[in-house]
Fold:
Amino acid sequence: MTIEASKSEQRAPKIRLGMVGGGQGAFIGAVHRMAARLDDHYDLVAGALSSTPEKALASARDLGLDPSRSYGSFAEMAEKEAARPDGIEAVSIVTPNHVHFAAAKAFLERGIHVICDKPLTSNLEDARALKAVADRADALFILTHNYTGYPMVRHARELVQAGELGEIRLVQMEYPQDWLAEPVEQTGAKQAVWRTDPAQSGAGGSTGDIGTHAYNLGSFISGLELDELAADVHTFVEGRRLDDNAHVMLRFKGGAKGLLWCSQVATGNENGLKVRIYGTKAGIEWTQADPNYLWFTRLGEPKQLITRAGAGAGAAAARVTRIPSGHPEGYLEAFATIYSEAAAAIIAARSGASVDPAVTYPTVDDGVKGVAFVSAIIESGKANGAWVKV
Structure:
């Protein structure tokens, strides 16, 4: 099923969507709304968009929502929407990390599908508890690790699954930024304030914010399970309460080794997400700054550049490709792929039908792994880089 094909196949009524968080001034809420609109599967009809009823209502009016479906809290929204015959079928949770658990639980327990921003929760105890709720709920849980939605990331994964790389030996991941190279949280910058606050973000700073993305991407493509890690975790900016740089050595089950670097103080870097995977037969390299291209190199042969929608791209990439080669697809389209994959699963769940096995999205299990990863990094860092089981 291609994204284009899904537009004609899924002409069932649009999914009634609500949103928790994402009000005025919230970057990621706007991204989620654009992603949900791109393939035309959702209608945003309700929201608890901010921490106070007044701010929530102002944001709802900005978005053209019915004021009667603007709620002062996620708890009120979950209760009232579940009681409506035209209530929401799914909810996007786009709040700071510490709200994810309670909000997701409230909707899952009422049979409302949850599409939640990452990381899953702010601590491992809540992550495991939320998995238990999701496992027994009559609703789906989708985690928006959006980088898994890029077509060439899907193709890279397909190459690994087909054995084209042979036995995986090395996985290298990096995600450097520089936007926190100075103490911008002290100026009141909204996006920086909550990300550097342990009460809202959790124990990880750069590790939880972007390190989880790099780790998830490497795991998604390679298919490997992490066994243990050793981390050098540091906070360079004076007065900051969470880490802003980490170097992590990884040991995967089966013997493969890995390296991960995440930083928010790497001057000159914007969103430098990159992954390299090397096996006994071939290696691959993908970078988000140039996402329509994947380098594939067989041992002893010249490097091969595979392009999105080009001759070398396979079925996994093709089914999430929207436009012809040479027209770039990027961040918003990858995000929209997660929403479209979620839509396919939600629409199938309406009638109890089986979802296409090709439909792929991050789950609550991926979320637990991400939070466990951050927890192990922080534990290792406090023990001066000791190896910690994950």
Summary: The two ends are 36 Å apart (CA to CA). The CA atoms of residues 186 and 348 lie 47 Å apart. The chain has 13 helices and 14 strands.
